[in-house]
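Quick start: read one record
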Amino acid sequence: MTAKAPVEFYFDFSSPYSYIASEWVAAVAARHGRTVSWHAILLGATFQAAELKSPVSYPVKREYAMVDFQRSARFEGVPYRQPEPFPIATQNAARVFWWLADQDAARAAVWAHTGLRAYFTRGVALDKPEPLRGLCREAGIDPDAAEAAWSDPAWKLRLKAENEAAIAAGIFGAPSFVVDGELFWGNDRRPQLERWLASGPF
């Protein structure tokens, strides 16, 4: 029997909806005999390619979003504390993700959970070296090796390549899910994603 293709999950460490979706995507996929392939990306790169701006850059949308982040987390039963500052640059956390992914995809997924939870429940500054090193230490990752990776031009290029691949796949925001070639954008597309996984195209 041919294995079903994984759910491709694109996320940004600074995206509240990515954090919320990261807490349910694996269970949803598993219910339908799927695994999850995690992809750390930078929303700034996708916004630039799509000629978009972050919703929180518009005052009226930001005001709504700040309410909706909290409400969406409560709806899913996920702990949430709005971090400040927000949003932040997350390229170093993403480079650590890809560095780990090349060694062990499962360990990289654990790092994704660690980083997202740290930022959105404790306000850990993923954009600053010392807090990021401390989080690596908490996660059982050698902080010196992690910092060497996020500073290494090779992993900078790898993240750039992953952003470009995501853009080529039509990704313009996060979280995004690709199932059997079908793109679903947003934490609120969970019901459609579940239906597709259960019964196929509709």
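The longest strand covers residues 7-11.
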